[in-house]
Design brief:
single chain, alpha/beta, Spore Coat Polysaccharide Biosynthesis Protein SpsA, Chain A, 2 domains, 13-stranded mixed sheet, 7-stranded mixed sheet, 32 strands
Length: 428
């Protein structure tokens, strides 16, 4: 599909994901054992045979750049194909730090103009979904739209105020758009997947650069286009999840499990880069004779000698004999020592849970003191390379910041809803 190019918004840090995005952008957060969230958008683009993809990267891009490499895993390497990182840059004029999504695309119009595409697809790289983009492109061209946006019907109990909502008439044309309204007039949520006619996109971005205030696509460019241009909706009826908070990130992992999982990675054909840090060279997972694994995803290089139930284990994870991991997400190279129990938790890379320690004790009714709306379902989060001392007890909806050593714990117990910070040497 040479006459369509894609621009992927790789996202930054969000407070609702807490320490998971301290050292990486949302799009680079690991997911599903051996993937990163951006793999879903890139795999969808690959299956639609888009040949040129630019990735707008702003916040702590190192891990994202390492992961993307040359783009080869997504067939974005070779004659006529390419994946390009598009960070902020300085020039003799007209460039500065990205001030919003519209400004970020505007500052990279040189990338668009270089390929002279008929249409430009702009999409988020931090959503979990599988979608055939070809019918989307076909509808866009059949209707002669200046902009087509992908929408999905979301039930009222799904936290609707976090999204943008489109009002659509009987012919599929968008007649109204509001970003995060208090009282939505529609149940059609924008999935942040847009297809613009190139000349219209350039004109609207140039106008926004002159007159805009927020410089965001969603609350300035899109509403303006609905008022003045031909905007249509394309409805996606498959799975889609925006893992914006710790609770939704954990919940999306739970959607991988069960007898009828909502996410079937084997059917989705998701690609990732396995060359990075030798992931492709990991030995097969080892399940020892003392182990019990029920309804679990166990990645290559993992070793299980204890009990694992309804959990996702990334490469290199070790669960020692007598340890138990339940309803949890355990990222790369974590160690759960003998006799420890991890219940309803997310452990970032390189965490060590000491022998006999307990994570997930007490009432789930006390939300986290720092992010009460994003961490209230009973999940506790332990940051990258932290050490939970032998015999320590961690409640529910807790956060342990990265790289805390055993000497940083002020007491053997961390009460539900509390956050343990290194600089304070105490729990908040």
């Amino acid at each position: 599909m040479r006459d369509v190019i894609a621009v992927v918004l790789a996202g930054g840090r969000v407070e609702e994901l807490s320490v998971l995005t301290l050292v990486r952008p949302k799009a680079a957060v690991p997911f599903g054992g051996q993937y990163r969230i951006i793999d879903f958008a890139l795999s969808n683009l690959m299956r639609a045979d888009l040949e040129q993809v630019g990735v707008l990267s702003l916040y702590r891009p190192s891990s994202l750049i390492d992961h993307l490499g040359t783009g080869a895993p997504w067939d974005l390497l070779g004659r006529g194909r390419g994946l390009k990182i598009l960070p902020p840059f300085t020039a003799h004029s007209g460039s500065e730090w990205y001030r919003g999504t519209a400004d970020a695309v505007y500052q990279n119009l040189h990338f668009v103009r270089r390929y002279r595409p008929r249409d430009v697809m702009v999409l988020s790289g931090d959503h979990i979904y599988s979608m055939d983009l070809r019918p989307f492109v076909d509808q866009h061209r059949r209707t002669g739209a200046d902009l087509t946006m992908v929408v999905k019907r979301i039930l009222p109990d799904r936290g609707r105020s976090r999204f943008g909502f489109a009002e659509v008439d009987g012919k599929g044309r968008v007649i109204g758009y509001e970003e995060k309204p208090a009282e939505p007039r529609s149940d059609l949520v924008s999935l942040t997947i847009y297809l613009f006619r190139t000349e219209v996109l350039i004109a609207r971005l140039e106008e926004n650069a002159r007159t805009g205030r927020s410089l965001q696509l969603y609350d300035e460019v899109l509403p303006a286009m609905v008022s003045s241009d031909k905007v249509f909706a394309y409805e996606h009826d498959g799975y889609w999840r925006y893992a914006r908070s710790v609770d939704t990130y954990h919940g999306a992992h739970m959607d991988l499990l069960g007898d009828e999982p909502a996410i079937r990675l084997g059917d989705w054909g998701v690609r990732t880069r396995k060359q990075l840090r030798g992931l492709g060279d990991q030995p097969p997972a080892r399940i020892e004779s003392s182990a019990e694994c029920v309804d679990a995803i166990v990645s290559p290089g993992a070793r299980v000698a204890g009990r694992v139930r309804r959990s996702v284990l990334s490469p290199g994870v070790e669960v020692e004999a007598g340890a138990e991991v339940v309803d949890s997400v355990v990222l790369h190279d974590c160690k759960v020592r003998a006799g420890a129990r991890v219940d309803r938790a997310v452990l970032d890379k390189g965490v060590e849970v000491g022998a006999g320690a307990r994570i997930g004790l007490g009432s789930p009714d006390v939300p986290n003191c720092d992010i009460p709306r994003a961490l209230a379902s009973g999940v506790s989060l332990v940051g990258k390379a932290a050490r939970v001392p032998e015999g320590a007890e961690v409640g529910r909806n807790c956060i342990v910041e990265p790289e805390l050593g055993e000497g940083d714990w002020p007491a053997a117990a961390l009460e539900s809803g509390r956050t343990l910070r290194k600089e304070e040497g105490s729990a908040a």
